[in-house]
Design a protein that fits this description.
mainly beta, 8-stranded antiparallel sheet, 106 residues
């Protein structure tokens, strides 16, 4: 299901793949108008549930250009909430990078 309006972008059962990332999630982006996407890192609230997902940080560069040169992969499984600038684990979240493994328990 897809919902899109000036205050909400919501996608349930999203399965998407780029050359670098494989996303399997339910995502909800809460925004104050479409202009919020121009300052995505600070202005867009995210509520997401990730089934096993691989995100290459360079793919986020479309929203935050400073991330384009970062080719690190992050594996996610669990629930998150907040802006990218202030992201929090909402429920048990498991994140693995090539060099480190992190667990956030809330």
């Amino acid at each position: 299901m897809l919902t899109l309006n000036p205050t909400l972008l919501e996608v349930d059962q999203l399965v998407a793949e780029t050359n670098n990332s494989k996303l399997n999630a339910d995502l909800r982006f809460v925004l104050n108008g479409y202009d919020a996407f121009s300052n995505f890192i600070q202005d867009v609230q995210i509520d997401g549930f990730f089934r096993p997902t691989i995100i290459n940080l360079s793919d986020i560069g479309y929203f935050e250009p400073s991330l384009f040169p970062m080719v690190d992969e992050v594996e996610l499984k669990g629930q998150i909430a907040g802006t990218i600038a202030d992201l929090k684990a909402k429920k048990n979240l498991n994140s693995i990078t090539a060099k480190h493994k992190f667990y956030w328990l809330t």
